[in-house]
Amino acid sequence: MAEVLVLVDHADGQVKKTTAELLTIARSLGTPSAVFVGSNVDAARPRLAQFGAEKVYVIDNADVDNYLVAPLAEALYAVVQQASPAAVLLPSTSHNKEAAARLAIKTESGLITDATAVEAAGDGVSTTQSVFAGSYTVKSTVTKGAPIITIKPNVVPPSAAQASATVVPVELTVSDAAKGAKITAREPKAKSGRPELTEAAIVVSGGRGTGGDFSPVETFADTLGAAVGASRAAVDAGWYPHSNQVGQTGKQVSPQLYVAAGISGAIQHRAGMQTSKTIIAINKDEEAPIFELVDFGVVGDLFTVLPQATEAVQKARA
Amino acid sequence: MNIVVCVKYVPDAQGDRTFNEDNTTDRDNVDGLLSELDEYAVEAALKIVEAGEGEVTVVTVGPEQAADAIKKALQMGADKAVHVSDEAIHGSDAVATSLILAEAIKKIGTPDLVLTGLASTDGTMSVVPAMLAERLGLPQVTQVSTLEVEGGTAKGRRDGDVASESVEAQLPALVSVTDQINEPRYPSFKGIMAAKKKPVETWSLADLGVDAGQVGLDAAWTKVESFAARPPREQGEIVTDEGDGGTKLAEFLVAQKFV
User: Fold this and answer.
1) ipTM for the complex?
2) Which keywords fit this entry according to its UniProt record (chain B) (predicted)?
3) Which residue among B37, B140, B225 sits closest to A141, beta carbon to beta carbon?
4) What is the pTM of this model?
Protein backbone atom coordinates (compact mmCIF):
# COMPACT_ATOMS: atom_id res chain seq x y z
CA MET A 1 0.00 0.00 0.00
CA ALA A 2 1.14 3.50 -0.71
CA GLU A 3 2.50 5.67 2.04
CA VAL A 4 0.34 8.27 3.74
CA LEU A 5 2.34 11.09 5.29
CA VAL A 6 1.36 12.53 8.66
CA LEU A 7 2.98 15.76 9.87
CA VAL A 8 3.83 15.25 13.54
CA ASP A 9 2.57 17.88 15.96
CA HIS A 10 5.07 18.02 18.81
CA ALA A 11 6.85 20.23 21.29
CA ASP A 12 10.52 19.20 21.49
CA GLY A 13 9.65 15.57 20.77
CA GLN A 14 6.57 15.45 23.00
CA VAL A 15 3.96 14.18 20.54
CA LYS A 16 0.47 15.67 20.77
CA LYS A 17 -2.78 13.72 20.71
CA THR A 18 -3.73 15.05 17.25
CA THR A 19 -0.79 13.10 15.80
CA ALA A 20 -2.16 9.82 17.18
CA GLU A 21 -5.53 10.73 15.65
CA LEU A 22 -3.98 11.47 12.25
CA LEU A 23 -1.94 8.25 12.29
CA THR A 24 -5.17 6.37 13.05
CA ILE A 25 -6.84 7.97 10.03
CA ALA A 26 -3.76 7.37 7.87
CA ARG A 27 -3.97 3.62 8.57
CA SER A 28 -7.38 3.54 6.86
CA LEU A 29 -5.86 5.09 3.72
CA GLY A 30 -2.51 3.33 3.37
CA THR A 31 0.74 2.79 5.23
CA PRO A 32 1.36 5.64 7.68
CA SER A 33 4.69 7.47 7.66
CA ALA A 34 5.34 10.22 10.15
CA VAL A 35 7.06 13.44 9.11
CA PHE A 36 9.00 14.80 12.06
CA VAL A 37 10.26 18.34 11.66
CA GLY A 38 12.55 19.50 14.44
CA SER A 39 14.88 17.95 17.00
CA ASN A 40 14.53 15.20 19.61
CA VAL A 41 12.94 12.56 17.40
CA ASP A 42 14.12 9.90 19.89
CA ALA A 43 11.58 11.15 22.41
CA ALA A 44 8.83 10.97 19.80
CA ARG A 45 9.58 7.59 18.25
CA PRO A 46 7.88 5.26 20.79
CA ARG A 47 4.57 7.13 20.47
CA LEU A 48 4.81 7.25 16.65
CA ALA A 49 5.54 3.49 16.61
CA GLN A 50 2.64 2.82 18.97
CA PHE A 51 0.16 4.43 16.57
CA GLY A 52 1.40 2.70 13.45
CA ALA A 53 4.12 4.81 11.80
CA GLU A 54 6.25 2.44 9.72
CA LYS A 55 8.72 5.17 8.83
CA VAL A 56 9.63 8.47 10.44
CA TYR A 57 11.06 11.01 8.02
CA VAL A 58 13.16 13.42 10.03
CA ILE A 59 14.03 16.95 9.01
CA ASP A 60 16.15 18.59 11.64
CA ASN A 61 17.07 21.98 10.20
CA ALA A 62 17.13 25.21 12.19
CA ASP A 63 16.04 27.24 9.16
CA VAL A 64 12.58 25.66 9.30
CA ASP A 65 12.09 27.10 12.78
CA ASN A 66 13.67 30.48 12.15
CA TYR A 67 11.63 31.53 9.13
CA LEU A 68 7.89 31.69 8.56
CA VAL A 69 5.98 28.88 6.77
CA ALA A 70 7.89 28.72 3.45
CA PRO A 71 10.71 26.46 4.78
CA LEU A 72 8.16 24.04 6.27
CA ALA A 73 6.53 23.81 2.85
CA GLU A 74 9.94 23.05 1.32
CA ALA A 75 10.56 20.39 3.98
CA LEU A 76 7.24 18.71 3.22
CA TYR A 77 7.96 18.97 -0.51
CA ALA A 78 11.29 17.18 -0.03
CA VAL A 79 9.56 14.29 1.75
CA VAL A 80 6.76 14.12 -0.83
CA GLN A 81 9.32 13.82 -3.62
CA GLN A 82 11.07 11.00 -1.79
CA ALA A 83 7.94 9.08 -0.69
CA SER A 84 5.42 9.70 -3.53
CA PRO A 85 2.63 9.39 -0.96
CA ALA A 86 -1.05 8.63 -1.57
CA ALA A 87 -1.99 11.54 0.70
CA VAL A 88 -0.51 14.10 3.11
CA LEU A 89 -2.32 14.72 6.41
CA LEU A 90 -1.62 17.68 8.70
CA PRO A 91 -3.19 18.87 11.95
CA SER A 92 -5.37 21.93 11.20
CA THR A 93 -3.43 24.83 12.65
CA SER A 94 -3.05 28.20 10.99
CA HIS A 95 0.66 27.58 10.42
CA ASN A 96 0.09 24.10 8.95
CA LYS A 97 -2.74 25.28 6.70
CA GLU A 98 -0.43 27.85 5.13
CA ALA A 99 2.37 25.32 4.66
CA ALA A 100 -0.19 22.95 3.10
CA ALA A 101 -1.29 25.75 0.77
CA ARG A 102 2.25 26.25 -0.53
CA LEU A 103 2.77 22.50 -0.79
CA ALA A 104 -0.42 22.24 -2.88
CA ILE A 105 1.00 24.72 -5.41
CA LYS A 106 4.44 23.03 -5.43
CA THR A 107 3.04 19.54 -5.97
CA GLU A 108 0.00 20.52 -8.07
CA SER A 109 -2.26 18.72 -5.63
CA GLY A 110 -5.72 19.51 -4.35
CA LEU A 111 -6.00 20.87 -0.79
CA ILE A 112 -8.81 20.39 1.71
CA THR A 113 -8.71 22.18 5.07
CA ASP A 114 -10.43 21.57 8.40
CA ALA A 115 -11.72 18.10 7.57
CA THR A 116 -13.88 16.46 10.23
CA ALA A 117 -13.78 13.01 8.61
CA VAL A 118 -11.52 11.36 6.04
CA GLU A 119 -12.15 8.03 4.34
CA ALA A 120 -10.88 6.05 1.39
CA ALA A 121 -13.13 6.35 -1.67
CA GLY A 122 -12.25 4.49 -4.85
CA ASP A 123 -8.71 5.45 -5.82
CA GLY A 124 -8.83 8.56 -3.73
CA VAL A 125 -10.01 10.09 -0.53
CA SER A 126 -13.33 11.57 0.52
CA THR A 127 -13.53 14.21 3.23
CA THR A 128 -16.23 15.85 5.30
CA GLN A 129 -16.17 19.52 6.27
CA SER A 130 -18.50 21.81 8.15
CA VAL A 131 -19.13 25.10 6.27
CA PHE A 132 -21.10 28.35 6.48
CA ALA A 133 -20.79 28.66 10.25
CA GLY A 134 -21.62 25.00 10.77
CA SER A 135 -24.94 25.23 8.94
CA TYR A 136 -23.91 22.80 6.16
CA THR A 137 -21.85 19.64 5.87
CA VAL A 138 -20.05 19.06 2.57
CA LYS A 139 -18.33 15.99 1.23
CA SER A 140 -15.40 16.64 -1.09
CA THR A 141 -12.80 14.76 -3.08
CA VAL A 142 -9.44 15.78 -4.46
CA THR A 143 -9.28 15.47 -8.23
CA LYS A 144 -5.61 16.27 -8.85
CA GLY A 145 -2.39 15.03 -7.32
CA ALA A 146 -1.92 13.41 -3.92
CA PRO A 147 -4.61 14.86 -1.59
CA ILE A 148 -3.30 17.31 1.01
CA ILE A 149 -5.71 17.41 3.93
CA THR A 150 -5.65 19.34 7.18
CA ILE A 151 -7.72 17.67 9.89
CA LYS A 152 -9.37 19.10 12.99
CA PRO A 153 -8.64 17.72 16.46
CA ASN A 154 -10.92 15.13 18.10
CA VAL A 155 -12.46 13.75 14.91
CA VAL A 156 -11.47 10.12 15.60
CA PRO A 157 -10.48 8.27 18.79
CA PRO A 158 -6.78 7.32 18.50
CA SER A 159 -6.27 3.58 18.25
CA ALA A 160 -2.89 1.93 18.72
CA ALA A 161 -1.20 -0.45 16.23
CA GLN A 162 2.46 -1.16 16.82
CA ALA A 163 4.83 -0.49 13.92
CA SER A 164 8.56 -0.10 13.49
CA ALA A 165 8.93 3.69 13.17
CA THR A 166 12.17 3.36 11.20
CA VAL A 167 13.98 6.67 11.11
CA VAL A 168 14.70 8.06 7.62
CA PRO A 169 16.74 11.27 7.74
CA VAL A 170 15.89 13.76 4.98
CA GLU A 171 18.45 16.33 3.84
CA LEU A 172 17.08 19.79 3.28
CA THR A 173 18.66 23.00 2.09
CA VAL A 174 16.17 25.79 2.56
CA SER A 175 16.18 28.15 -0.42
CA ASP A 176 17.07 31.82 0.00
CA ALA A 177 13.59 32.72 -1.27
CA ALA A 178 12.01 30.76 1.59
CA LYS A 179 14.12 32.73 4.08
CA GLY A 180 12.34 35.96 3.19
CA ALA A 181 10.29 36.21 6.37
CA LYS A 182 12.40 35.82 9.50
CA ILE A 183 11.04 35.10 12.96
CA THR A 184 12.91 37.57 15.14
CA ALA A 185 11.34 36.72 18.51
CA ARG A 186 9.13 34.04 19.97
CA GLU A 187 7.12 34.33 23.16
CA PRO A 188 5.55 31.05 24.29
CA LYS A 189 1.93 31.28 25.45
CA ALA A 190 1.47 31.43 29.21
CA LYS A 191 0.27 28.07 30.54
CA SER A 192 -3.07 28.32 32.29
CA GLY A 193 -3.10 24.78 33.66
CA ARG A 194 -6.44 24.33 31.89
CA PRO A 195 -6.97 22.03 28.90
CA GLU A 196 -6.21 23.38 25.41
CA LEU A 197 -9.24 25.15 24.00
CA THR A 198 -9.46 23.20 20.74
CA GLU A 199 -8.88 19.83 22.41
CA ALA A 200 -11.02 20.25 25.55
CA ALA A 201 -14.08 18.06 26.11
CA ILE A 202 -15.81 20.94 27.90
CA VAL A 203 -15.51 24.66 27.14
CA VAL A 204 -16.97 27.47 29.25
CA SER A 205 -16.95 30.85 27.50
CA GLY A 206 -17.68 34.36 28.67
CA GLY A 207 -18.85 37.34 26.67
CA ARG A 208 -20.02 40.91 26.97
CA GLY A 209 -22.27 39.93 29.88
CA THR A 210 -19.24 39.36 32.11
CA GLY A 211 -18.54 43.08 32.07
CA GLY A 212 -14.86 42.13 32.19
CA ASP A 213 -15.06 39.93 35.29
CA PHE A 214 -14.31 36.38 34.13
CA SER A 215 -13.95 34.96 37.67
CA PRO A 216 -17.34 33.15 37.77
CA VAL A 217 -16.63 31.75 34.28
CA GLU A 218 -13.17 30.53 35.30
CA THR A 219 -14.37 29.05 38.60
CA PHE A 220 -17.17 27.15 36.87
CA ALA A 221 -14.74 25.97 34.17
CA ASP A 222 -12.29 24.69 36.77
CA THR A 223 -15.07 22.83 38.57
CA LEU A 224 -15.83 20.99 35.32
CA GLY A 225 -12.18 20.62 34.22
CA ALA A 226 -13.00 22.79 31.24
CA ALA A 227 -11.13 25.19 28.98
CA VAL A 228 -12.09 28.87 29.08
CA GLY A 229 -13.17 30.67 25.93
CA ALA A 230 -14.23 34.22 25.16
CA SER A 231 -16.40 35.94 22.59
CA ARG A 232 -14.95 38.50 20.24
CA ALA A 233 -16.69 41.30 22.15
CA ALA A 234 -14.87 40.24 25.33
CA VAL A 235 -11.55 39.98 23.48
CA ASP A 236 -11.98 43.33 21.71
CA ALA A 237 -12.73 44.94 25.08
CA GLY A 238 -9.37 43.61 26.31
CA TRP A 239 -10.97 41.38 28.95
CA TYR A 240 -9.46 38.12 27.72
CA PRO A 241 -6.54 37.16 25.41
CA HIS A 242 -7.20 36.76 21.70
CA SER A 243 -5.82 33.22 21.85
CA ASN A 244 -8.93 32.24 23.83
CA GLN A 245 -11.37 33.70 21.32
CA VAL A 246 -14.01 31.28 20.05
CA GLY A 247 -15.54 32.18 16.71
CA GLN A 248 -15.01 32.78 13.05
CA THR A 249 -11.75 34.63 13.54
CA GLY A 250 -10.68 32.75 16.63
CA LYS A 251 -10.66 29.10 17.58
CA GLN A 252 -13.19 26.65 16.21
CA VAL A 253 -14.25 24.30 18.98
CA SER A 254 -16.41 21.21 18.93
CA PRO A 255 -16.49 19.90 22.51
CA GLN A 256 -18.90 17.48 24.18
CA LEU A 257 -20.26 20.42 26.20
CA TYR A 258 -20.15 24.15 25.46
CA VAL A 259 -21.34 26.67 28.02
CA ALA A 260 -21.89 30.26 26.80
CA ALA A 261 -22.18 32.77 29.63
CA GLY A 262 -23.22 36.32 28.79
CA ILE A 263 -22.79 35.70 25.06
CA SER A 264 -25.59 36.82 22.73
CA GLY A 265 -24.65 34.41 19.94
CA ALA A 266 -23.82 36.51 16.88
CA ILE A 267 -23.22 34.48 13.71
CA GLN A 268 -19.46 35.01 14.06
CA HIS A 269 -19.49 33.33 17.46
CA ARG A 270 -21.81 30.58 16.33
CA ALA A 271 -19.35 29.80 13.52
CA GLY A 272 -16.86 28.74 16.17
CA MET A 273 -19.03 26.57 18.41
CA GLN A 274 -22.19 25.48 16.61
CA THR A 275 -20.98 21.91 16.14
CA SER A 276 -20.57 21.36 19.91
CA LYS A 277 -22.52 18.28 21.01
CA THR A 278 -24.39 19.82 23.94
CA ILE A 279 -24.85 23.57 24.33
CA ILE A 280 -25.84 25.52 27.43
CA ALA A 281 -26.36 29.29 27.62
CA ILE A 282 -26.86 31.75 30.42
CA ASN A 283 -28.01 35.21 29.38
CA LYS A 284 -30.08 38.00 30.89
CA ASP A 285 -31.72 38.69 27.52
CA GLU A 286 -34.32 36.06 26.72
CA GLU A 287 -34.25 37.22 23.06
CA ALA A 288 -30.52 36.40 22.66
CA PRO A 289 -30.02 34.31 19.49
CA ILE A 290 -27.81 31.86 21.41
CA PHE A 291 -30.99 30.40 22.94
CA GLU A 292 -31.96 29.06 19.49
CA LEU A 293 -29.03 26.64 19.73
CA VAL A 294 -29.20 25.44 23.28
CA ASP A 295 -30.04 22.12 24.83
CA PHE A 296 -30.48 23.94 28.12
CA GLY A 297 -30.75 27.67 28.73
CA VAL A 298 -31.08 29.89 31.76
CA VAL A 299 -32.49 33.38 31.37
CA GLY A 300 -30.70 35.09 34.21
CA ASP A 301 -27.62 36.88 35.49
CA LEU A 302 -24.44 34.84 35.12
CA PHE A 303 -23.11 36.38 38.35
CA THR A 304 -25.81 34.60 40.35
CA VAL A 305 -26.41 31.53 38.12
CA LEU A 306 -22.77 30.40 37.66
CA PRO A 307 -21.72 30.51 41.35
CA GLN A 308 -24.89 28.64 42.31
CA ALA A 309 -24.26 26.05 39.57
CA THR A 310 -20.62 25.72 40.70
CA GLU A 311 -21.73 25.00 44.24
CA ALA A 312 -24.42 22.55 43.12
CA VAL A 313 -21.95 20.65 40.91
CA GLN A 314 -19.48 20.41 43.81
CA LYS A 315 -22.27 19.15 46.08
CA ALA A 316 -23.39 16.58 43.51
CA ARG A 317 -19.82 15.28 43.36
CA ALA A 318 -19.38 15.09 47.14
CA MET B 1 4.80 52.97 -1.87
CA ASN B 2 2.44 50.97 -4.01
CA ILE B 3 0.09 48.66 -2.18
CA VAL B 4 -2.26 46.13 -3.72
CA VAL B 5 -5.08 44.89 -1.50
CA CYS B 6 -6.87 41.69 -2.50
CA VAL B 7 -10.53 41.68 -1.53
CA LYS B 8 -13.42 39.29 -1.97
CA TYR B 9 -17.13 39.68 -2.51
CA VAL B 10 -18.91 37.15 -0.29
CA PRO B 11 -22.48 36.15 0.57
CA ASP B 12 -23.66 38.01 3.67
CA ALA B 13 -23.23 35.72 6.70
CA GLN B 14 -26.42 37.19 8.16
CA GLY B 15 -28.40 35.78 5.21
CA ASP B 16 -29.21 32.18 4.34
CA ARG B 17 -26.05 31.01 2.60
CA THR B 18 -26.47 27.94 0.45
CA PHE B 19 -25.29 26.11 -2.68
CA ASN B 20 -26.15 25.95 -6.37
CA GLU B 21 -27.08 22.72 -8.13
CA ASP B 22 -23.45 22.32 -9.24
CA ASN B 23 -22.38 22.40 -5.54
CA THR B 24 -20.77 25.83 -5.87
CA THR B 25 -21.58 28.66 -3.47
CA ASP B 26 -24.84 30.42 -4.32
CA ARG B 27 -23.90 34.06 -4.95
CA ASP B 28 -27.08 35.12 -6.78
CA ASN B 29 -29.87 34.51 -4.29
CA VAL B 30 -28.27 36.04 -1.25
CA ASP B 31 -27.00 39.57 -0.69
CA GLY B 32 -23.27 39.95 -1.06
CA LEU B 33 -20.77 42.37 0.39
CA LEU B 34 -17.07 43.07 0.91
CA SER B 35 -15.78 40.25 3.14
CA GLU B 36 -15.70 41.79 6.61
CA LEU B 37 -12.16 40.54 7.22
CA ASP B 38 -10.87 42.34 4.10
CA GLU B 39 -11.82 45.71 5.58
CA TYR B 40 -8.92 45.30 8.01
CA ALA B 41 -6.51 44.89 5.08
CA VAL B 42 -7.91 47.96 3.33
CA GLU B 43 -7.62 49.98 6.54
CA ALA B 44 -4.02 48.79 7.09
CA ALA B 45 -3.11 49.87 3.54
CA LEU B 46 -4.74 53.28 3.94
CA LYS B 47 -2.89 53.89 7.21
CA ILE B 48 0.48 53.08 5.64
CA VAL B 49 -0.12 55.38 2.68
CA GLU B 50 -1.47 58.18 4.86
CA ALA B 51 1.65 58.02 7.03
CA GLY B 52 3.89 58.42 4.00
CA GLU B 53 3.01 58.43 0.37
CA GLY B 54 1.82 56.06 -2.29
CA GLU B 55 -1.19 54.50 -3.81
CA VAL B 56 -3.63 51.78 -2.84
CA THR B 57 -5.01 49.53 -5.60
CA VAL B 58 -7.78 47.09 -4.82
CA VAL B 59 -8.09 43.88 -6.81
CA THR B 60 -10.92 41.39 -6.78
CA VAL B 61 -11.80 38.22 -8.67
CA GLY B 62 -15.51 37.60 -8.98
CA PRO B 63 -18.77 38.01 -10.84
CA GLU B 64 -20.32 41.33 -11.87
CA GLN B 65 -21.80 41.91 -8.41
CA ALA B 66 -18.28 41.84 -6.96
CA ALA B 67 -18.07 45.48 -8.09
CA ASP B 68 -19.90 46.22 -4.80
CA ALA B 69 -16.89 44.98 -2.81
CA ILE B 70 -14.61 47.24 -4.86
CA LYS B 71 -16.94 50.19 -4.36
CA LYS B 72 -16.80 49.83 -0.59
CA ALA B 73 -12.98 49.73 -0.62
CA LEU B 74 -12.85 52.83 -2.86
CA GLN B 75 -15.30 54.61 -0.56
CA MET B 76 -13.03 53.82 2.39
CA GLY B 77 -10.21 55.57 0.51
CA ALA B 78 -8.44 53.21 -1.89
CA ASP B 79 -7.23 55.02 -5.04
CA LYS B 80 -8.13 52.66 -7.84
CA ALA B 81 -9.33 49.16 -8.53
CA VAL B 82 -9.08 46.15 -10.80
CA HIS B 83 -11.97 43.73 -11.21
CA VAL B 84 -11.17 40.39 -12.85
CA SER B 85 -14.43 39.06 -14.18
CA ASP B 86 -14.99 36.22 -16.62
CA GLU B 87 -17.70 33.60 -16.91
CA ALA B 88 -15.06 30.89 -16.96
CA ILE B 89 -14.08 31.78 -13.39
CA HIS B 90 -17.30 30.38 -11.87
CA GLY B 91 -16.54 27.53 -9.48
CA SER B 92 -12.81 28.27 -9.19
CA ASP B 93 -11.12 26.86 -6.08
CA ALA B 94 -8.51 28.57 -3.92
CA VAL B 95 -5.71 27.32 -6.18
CA ALA B 96 -7.24 28.89 -9.31
CA THR B 97 -8.18 32.07 -7.44
CA SER B 98 -4.57 32.46 -6.34
CA LEU B 99 -3.42 31.99 -9.96
CA ILE B 100 -5.77 34.70 -11.25
CA LEU B 101 -4.82 37.08 -8.43
CA ALA B 102 -1.11 36.47 -9.02
CA GLU B 103 -1.42 37.26 -12.73
CA ALA B 104 -3.51 40.36 -12.00
CA ILE B 105 -0.93 41.62 -9.50
CA LYS B 106 1.87 41.09 -12.03
CA LYS B 107 -0.09 43.07 -14.61
CA ILE B 108 -0.77 45.90 -12.14
CA GLY B 109 2.99 46.19 -11.72
CA THR B 110 5.27 45.03 -8.95
CA PRO B 111 3.79 46.44 -5.76
CA ASP B 112 5.86 47.05 -2.64
CA LEU B 113 3.23 45.34 -0.57
CA VAL B 114 0.40 42.90 -1.25
CA LEU B 115 -2.14 43.00 1.57
CA THR B 116 -4.96 40.56 2.27
CA GLY B 117 -7.35 39.72 5.07
CA LEU B 118 -7.02 36.70 7.33
CA ALA B 119 -9.55 34.62 5.38
CA SER B 120 -12.69 35.14 3.36
CA THR B 121 -15.86 34.81 5.39
CA ASP B 122 -17.37 32.28 2.96
CA GLY B 123 -14.66 29.67 2.30
CA THR B 124 -12.73 30.54 5.51
CA MET B 125 -9.76 28.42 4.40
CA SER B 126 -7.15 31.21 4.87
CA VAL B 127 -4.87 29.59 2.28
CA VAL B 128 -5.00 32.06 -0.64
CA PRO B 129 -2.43 34.46 0.93
CA ALA B 130 0.16 31.67 1.30
CA MET B 131 -0.58 30.40 -2.23
CA LEU B 132 -0.15 33.93 -3.58
CA ALA B 133 3.18 34.34 -1.78
CA GLU B 134 4.32 31.02 -3.24
CA ARG B 135 3.27 32.00 -6.76
CA LEU B 136 4.70 35.52 -6.60
CA GLY B 137 7.89 34.44 -4.83
CA LEU B 138 7.27 36.99 -2.09
CA PRO B 139 8.11 36.62 1.60
CA GLN B 140 4.92 35.95 3.55
CA VAL B 141 4.21 37.85 6.75
CA THR B 142 0.83 36.32 7.42
CA GLN B 143 -1.90 36.56 10.05
CA VAL B 144 -0.32 39.49 11.81
CA SER B 145 -2.10 41.53 14.46
CA THR B 146 0.33 44.45 14.17
CA LEU B 147 2.13 45.86 11.14
CA GLU B 148 4.85 48.47 10.75
CA VAL B 149 6.36 49.33 7.40
CA GLU B 150 9.54 51.35 7.65
CA GLY B 151 12.72 51.68 5.66
CA GLY B 152 11.80 48.94 3.22
CA THR B 153 10.95 46.43 5.95
CA ALA B 154 7.61 45.05 7.06
CA LYS B 155 7.40 43.96 10.69
CA GLY B 156 4.47 42.24 12.33
CA ARG B 157 3.41 40.19 15.28
CA ARG B 158 1.76 36.85 14.72
CA ASP B 159 -0.38 35.30 17.43
CA GLY B 160 0.25 31.60 16.83
CA ASP B 161 -1.21 28.56 18.52
CA VAL B 162 1.66 27.91 20.89
CA ALA B 163 3.59 31.18 20.79
CA SER B 164 3.45 34.78 19.66
CA GLU B 165 6.05 35.48 17.01
CA SER B 166 7.63 38.66 15.74
CA VAL B 167 8.20 38.44 12.00
CA GLU B 168 10.00 40.69 9.56
CA ALA B 169 10.66 40.76 5.84
CA GLN B 170 12.19 43.05 3.25
CA LEU B 171 9.75 44.57 0.77
CA PRO B 172 8.25 43.57 -1.54
CA ALA B 173 6.28 41.25 0.70
CA LEU B 174 2.87 39.72 1.11
CA VAL B 175 1.10 40.49 4.37
CA SER B 176 -2.19 39.13 5.68
CA VAL B 177 -3.75 40.83 8.69
CA THR B 178 -6.16 39.65 11.40
CA ASP B 179 -9.16 41.46 12.82
CA GLN B 180 -7.04 42.48 15.81
CA ILE B 181 -4.93 44.92 13.79
CA ASN B 182 -7.15 48.00 13.55
CA GLU B 183 -10.66 49.39 13.51
CA PRO B 184 -11.75 49.79 9.87
CA ARG B 185 -13.18 53.23 9.10
CA TYR B 186 -16.67 53.83 7.79
CA PRO B 187 -16.79 55.57 4.42
CA SER B 188 -17.40 59.30 4.89
CA PHE B 189 -19.82 61.22 2.68
CA LYS B 190 -16.80 62.75 0.98
CA GLY B 191 -15.35 59.29 0.46
CA ILE B 192 -18.60 58.01 -1.03
CA MET B 193 -18.75 60.92 -3.49
CA ALA B 194 -15.05 60.65 -4.39
CA ALA B 195 -15.32 56.88 -5.04
CA LYS B 196 -17.62 57.52 -8.00
CA LYS B 197 -14.78 59.17 -9.91
CA LYS B 198 -12.07 56.65 -9.11
CA PRO B 199 -10.79 54.44 -11.94
CA VAL B 200 -11.94 50.82 -12.05
CA GLU B 201 -10.52 48.53 -14.71
CA THR B 202 -12.26 45.31 -15.65
CA TRP B 203 -10.04 42.55 -16.96
CA SER B 204 -10.93 39.21 -18.49
CA LEU B 205 -8.83 36.04 -18.27
CA ALA B 206 -7.56 36.81 -21.79
CA ASP B 207 -6.30 40.20 -20.56
CA LEU B 208 -4.22 38.31 -18.00
CA GLY B 209 -3.06 35.62 -20.38
CA VAL B 210 -4.70 32.96 -18.22
CA ASP B 211 -6.11 29.98 -20.10
CA ALA B 212 -9.79 29.50 -19.24
CA GLY B 213 -9.07 25.76 -18.99
CA GLN B 214 -6.90 26.40 -15.92
CA VAL B 215 -9.74 27.85 -13.83
CA GLY B 216 -13.39 27.30 -13.04
CA LEU B 217 -15.31 24.32 -11.74
CA ASP B 218 -14.00 21.71 -14.17
CA ALA B 219 -10.37 22.61 -13.58
CA ALA B 220 -10.65 22.71 -9.78
CA TRP B 221 -8.26 20.38 -7.94
CA THR B 222 -10.95 19.63 -5.37
CA LYS B 223 -14.60 18.87 -5.93
CA VAL B 224 -17.58 19.22 -3.63
CA GLU B 225 -19.48 15.97 -4.17
CA SER B 226 -22.48 16.72 -1.98
CA PHE B 227 -23.82 19.13 0.61
CA ALA B 228 -26.38 18.71 3.35
CA ALA B 229 -27.96 21.24 5.67
CA ARG B 230 -27.18 20.53 9.28
CA PRO B 231 -30.38 19.21 10.87
CA PRO B 232 -32.02 21.95 12.94
CA ARG B 233 -31.39 21.58 16.66
CA GLU B 234 -34.40 20.58 18.66
CA GLN B 235 -35.51 23.40 20.90
CA GLY B 236 -33.95 22.77 24.28
CA GLU B 237 -35.32 23.52 27.70
CA ILE B 238 -35.13 27.17 28.72
CA VAL B 239 -35.77 28.23 32.28
CA THR B 240 -35.98 31.69 33.80
CA ASP B 241 -33.87 32.14 36.90
CA GLU B 242 -36.06 32.58 39.93
CA GLY B 243 -33.32 32.00 42.44
CA ASP B 244 -32.72 28.40 41.41
CA GLY B 245 -31.34 28.78 37.82
CA GLY B 246 -27.86 27.58 38.81
CA THR B 247 -29.27 24.56 40.64
CA LYS B 248 -31.36 23.61 37.61
CA LEU B 249 -28.32 24.01 35.37
CA ALA B 250 -26.36 21.66 37.63
CA GLU B 251 -29.25 19.16 37.62
CA PHE B 252 -29.15 19.18 33.81
CA LEU B 253 -25.39 18.51 33.87
CA VAL B 254 -25.89 15.61 36.29
CA ALA B 255 -28.74 14.16 34.19
CA GLN B 256 -26.54 14.38 31.06
CA LYS B 257 -23.67 12.70 32.97
CA PHE B 258 -21.29 15.66 32.65
CA VAL B 259 -20.99 15.54 36.45
Assistant:
1) 0.94
2) Electron transport, Transport
3) B225
4) 0.94
